[in-house]
Amino acid sequence: MIHANDDHVEASTDSVGGAIGILQRPRTRMIRTVVLVLGWVSMGLFSEITGPTLPYLKRHVSSNYEEIARAMMARSVGFLVGTLSGGLLCEWYTIYVDVWLAFSLAVAAIATAVVPWCHSLTLLAALLCTDGFGKGILAAGGNAFMIRMWGVDAAVPVHALHTAFGIGALLAPQLARPFLGTIPEDNNNNNNVSVVYIDNTSYTAVLSNSTSYDTNPAVIEYPYSIISAFTLFVAAIFILLYCFAPIRQEAPHKRSGNHAVTPSLWLGGKKRLGYAVLGLLFFLCMFPVGMERAYGRFLFSLSVTGRLKLSPADGTLLESAFWASFTSGRLLVTVAATRVSQIKLILIELSVNIVATTALVTYGQASGPLLAVFSALFAAGMAPLHPSVLAWLNLYVEVTAMLTCMTFFSCACGAFVYSWLAGYLFQYEGPDSLLYFMLASTCVCVMIFAPLYFSAVRYERDSRHRRGVCETKVTECDEMREADTGRTKM
């Protein structure tokens, strides 16, 4: 039942197919959907602008890649806290969901605007943590609210959200491109090169002998400011929606209470097998998101500071191609999922990742076009892996709210660990180590998925056996009943 007037939108709860939807006027619901999509475009922008500007941020805070990677780990901590907070706030206080989403965007926008002005590694970590907190609220709250609005018809809108993130991510490098200067040289000893201004003669001599390049400190302020302004603009729209088209709760929200992760009830009640699947799922969810964060964030640095020494302009094109392929991969799998089974899709995605990472290790540093092609192939195979695994697992286990929360936690852990490991390897083992890291991670994904797959196959075989036994017993009972009926008639 839809309760609406020109000024208010009433929220009612309706359980359809296990989904609870907030029923609204179609026009208002569509407006909120568009604004949510814009919010996720902004999330892609402020999340991935750090990739093409990473060498400049490193120079600003006088650090190396390993140290700045440790600072970026703080974003994952903030994301985890924001995910938990946003999920609870948007679940319990649905009438204020516009306020929570506006708050998350405003927090992220302020942190994004201040980042390029930061010259302290500790302060940068605090800003990135704040940025991650806002991102977490938007990710959890936006997903939950979109599903509530559309109910059983939420598939396309939810996919639109995740596609919007990819669009923002591929636009970020091009937004930064006009403002990027000369790439600062990496100083492995983490010492800053100082220029002593004694007189004109000595100044010229020092400058000509120096291998470090001074960058304009204002160069990267502009793309960060533009992204911050756009994010604040979307936040203002949410505030306007709350003021002029608020959601009015008709009755206290009813929750089923079945939000627990209950692996003992999975796979036909096989407790040990259920807990094994839970553990494997936790580790498996870490890898796709971790690889996405690490490779997407360090790809620009790899292209401009690695063996290829591409220009910043070419580096931004390479990163945009990566994110464009990432978005295309999700769209392609969304369409293919209507005709191809989930297990086949997962096997195809893992195979593509193995081929792409092997090619990156072998030929990735041979030329810029080869690096672009194989990075795009890697993005297309990696992007849909996480949602494909969850969709496939949903055939065998009950994907409850707490299980979804656990996968968010696993993703945050993956981003946390990979951010530091990628930075450490990049700094101390060289840029090429990033490619070997991706290949090793893909191989581990395959090793983790294999027991999950065989567990499902075993469950299907046992289920077919049980169904066969039951059908045999039913047939025998029917034959005995017919025989008894025949004797009675005689």
Distance between the termini: 60 Å
**How many extended strands?**
4
Q: Can you give the mean pLDDT?
A: 76
The count of domains is: 2
From the alpha carbons, calculate the radius of gyration and give it in angstroms.
26 Å
Tell me the β content: under 5%
Unreliable residue stretches: 1-23, 188-218, 250-261
Instruction: Give the strand line-up of the largest sheet.
Output: 1-4
> Do you know the CATH topology of the largest domain?
Growth Hormone, Chain: A
Q: Mind telling me the CATH class of the largest domain?
A: Mainly Alpha
**How does the overall form come out from the CA principal axes?**
globular
- DSSP summary: helix tally: 15
Summarize the helix and strand pattern as letters: EEEHHHHHHHHEHHHHHHH
Helical coverage, percent range: over 70%
Label the structural class: mainly alpha
CATH architecture of the largest domain: Up-down Bundle
Summarize the biggest pleated sheet: 2 strands, parallel
Write the CATH homologous superfamily of the largest domain. MFS general substrate transporter like domains
